[in-house]
Amino acid sequence: MATSLLRVAPPEELLRPLAVPERLLLGPGPSNVPHRIRAAGGRQLLGHMHPEVLQVMDEIKAGIQYAFQTRNRLTLAISGSGHCAMEAALFNLLEQGDPMLVATNGIWGQRAADIARRLGANVYEMVKPSGKYFTPQDIEQGLVQHKPLVLFITHGESSTGVLQPLEGLGKLCHRHGCLLLVDAVASLGGAPIFMDHQEIDVLYSGSQKVLNAPPGSAPISFSERAREKLLRRKTKPPSFYLDMGWLANYWGCDGEPRRYHHTAPINSFFSLREGLAMLAELGLESSWERHRANCTQLCQGLLDMGLQLFVEEEKARLPTVTTVRVPEGYDWKDITAFLMDNHGMEIAGGLGPTVGKVLRIGLMGCNSTSGNVDRVLGALQDALKRCHRSRL
Ligand code: PMP
């Protein structure tokens, strides 16, 4: 009998019910998923080529065009997380030997440089201390020195809490024959960005931050200039899954009949559609203002507690993710664990260059409320009383 060949028993843990506690997610993402978006993701599955699904994809496209403030035809959602969109951008833009300039002031520049090197690009990195941003003069110097075809920069540096000003960078890049690639995974919907007006060539984001959808789908858009570079490629992009030619067709961006490329995460698309719909209903300007106001309230509360903000310049603070220095006499892990165990609340430690130095508090989308600011400040006050090393 075939069953006699079974050597691995059904796992005990799978015979128990799924355990998912209620938790307030105030780290740098994912953020909590409101009922409406969860319900959308729980709807019955349809086929990935059914007209109703194609219609939802068209609606997502329109939602991304609104959120990005672009009229780009080549606008869609990647089936994958923010990293997948980063790879989609780089895999399609770069060919072996292409010079690329990466503005690194935290982990996301490091990651982009790593991916670009794997592709055989000629990668130059411009490095700023974490907590700082790049000025147009810094960028121009890099463009003149390295003559890159692509510049990568992060709008919302979630590992450090820095908001990168983008004004003028697109024009500058274009004057130097370079395309501008921007990561807005942590900032989209939380801080102003205007893809067309700012002449950004490739922009991508994620679903699980301000859009409050589960992780696994990532908005991306390519300008006409970027599309032309894709058309001029001498070699195919190294990934079939992330080939923008195929994806453009599947998303109805090339005017051709849509062909099967991969089985899209349809239920994730339902959720993303609702996340974008909620942003459209609220309006970008209200969303930006809400994130700004709650971040200001949070920063003031942290300062009133005697804590130090990591990003000194107020206008350089990312409204979605606030970084606060771990105070003397404390270990960040004790604080994050205390909040989790006693307040059912997630905040995060540092990442990359900020590990051990900061705590990161995220207020994104529906989680960006004045009530949540009070909750996290209260919980932190409690943690500071209980977690001093001398007490443990
Ligand atoms: N870029 C930035 C700025 C991010 O904050 C993140 C997620 N923390 C990513 C890229 C990667 O996204 P994901 O974890 O969804 O792959």
TrEMBL record:
Q: Name one GO cellular component term.
A: peroxisome
The segment(s) forming the Aminotransferase class V domain are 46-376
Its signal peptide is none
The UniProt catalytic activity note for this protein reads: L-serine + pyruvate = 3-hydroxypyruvate + L-alanine; glyoxylate + L-alanine = glycine + pyruvate
Residues binding substrate are R360
| PROSITE patterns found in the cross-reference section | AA_TRANSFER_CLASS_5
What is the enzyme's main class?
A: transferase
Residue positions of the PTM N6-(pyridoxal phosphate)lysine?
K209
Q: Which InterPro entries does UniProt cross-reference here?
A: Aminotrans_V_dom, Aminotrans_V_PyrdxlP_BS, PyrdxlP-dep_Trfase, PyrdxlP-dep_Trfase_major, PyrdxlP-dep_Trfase_small, SP_NH2Trfase/AEP_transaminase
Arranged from A to Z, the UniProt key words for this protein are: Aminotransferase, Pyridoxal phosphate, Transferase
Report the EC number(s), separated by commas if there are several: 2.6.1.44, 2.6.1.51
The record's Gene Ontology biological-process terms are: glycine biosynthetic process, by transamination of glyoxylate
Gene Ontology MF: a single term: L-serine-pyruvate transaminase activity
Coiled-coil intervals: none
Q: List cofactor names only.
A: pyridoxal 5'-phosphate
Q: What's this protein's family per the entry?
A: Belongs to the class-V pyridoxal-phosphate-dependent aminotransferase family.
Query: Which PANTHER family does the protein's record reference?
Result: ALANINE--GLYOXYLATE AMINOTRANSFERASE, AMINOTRANSFERASE CLASS V
* UniProt protein name: Alanine--glyoxylate aminotransferase
Q: Which gene encodes it?
A: Agxt
